[in-house]
Amino acid sequence: MDLKKFLFILLATFNFIYSLAQNSSNNVDFWNNVRFGGGIGLGFNNNSFNGSISPSTIYQFNDQIAAGTGLNFNYAKFNDDKFLAYGGSVLSLFNPIPQLQLSTEFEQLRINRTLYTQTINIEDNYWLPAFFVGLGYSTRNVTLGLRYDLLYNDSKSIYGNALTPFVRVFF
């Protein structure tokens, strides 16, 4: 997916949320349903590290459904190879029961990576899409879980594998 498509999806989401606010009989009701928070991620493996922070804003439609957008910043180091990624995401959350959260998240990241070999150093910059489906345990404002990237690319992704843990907090 290119940058134009990603920006269109992001702007369409903002437009949808904004139009909900305009149709509300009282704008205060809209802001009472907006929640701020995000997620953090840490991954460790043999000679590797992956850390991420992703502030997000969601609109809580009801007790079960929420949707929103987020910003993403990721740093990863595998042996001597380094990856820096930044971008945005669109996410949806569904809680069929209060303790169980199902999620989907489309993420578009700009990747800057440096690969060190014995003969040359390779610098690479590219856009990388990811589509996560997740399952988490929720308690109050915190959700702990696992998510799986359906578009995982072993040679391009900054994540160690397609399955990654997450922690989400919304207030």
Distance between the termini: 31 Å
Strand order of the largest sheet: 1-2-3-4-5-6-7-8
Uncertain spans: none
Q: Taking all residues together, what is the mean pLDDT?
A: 86
Characterize the main sheet: 8 strands, antiparallel, barrel
Strand content range: over 45%
Shape: globular
**Rg, Å, rounded:** 17 Å
What structural class results from the helix and strand content?
alpha+beta
Order of helices and strands: HHEEEEEEEE
Topology summary:
Elements: H1 3-23, H2 27-32, E1 34-45, E2 48-60, E3 65-78, E4 81-97, E5 100-116, E6 121-139, E7 142-149, E8 163-170
How would you describe what is shown here?
The protein has helices at residues 3-23, 27-32; strands at 34-45, 48-60, 65-78, 81-97, 100-116, 121-139, 142-149, 163-170. By secondary structure, the protein is of the alpha+beta class. An 8-stranded antiparallel β-barrel has the order 1-2-3-4-5-6-7-8. Strand 6 and strand 7 (142-149) form a beta hairpin. The longest helix has 21 residues, at 3-23. It is globular and about 60 Å long.
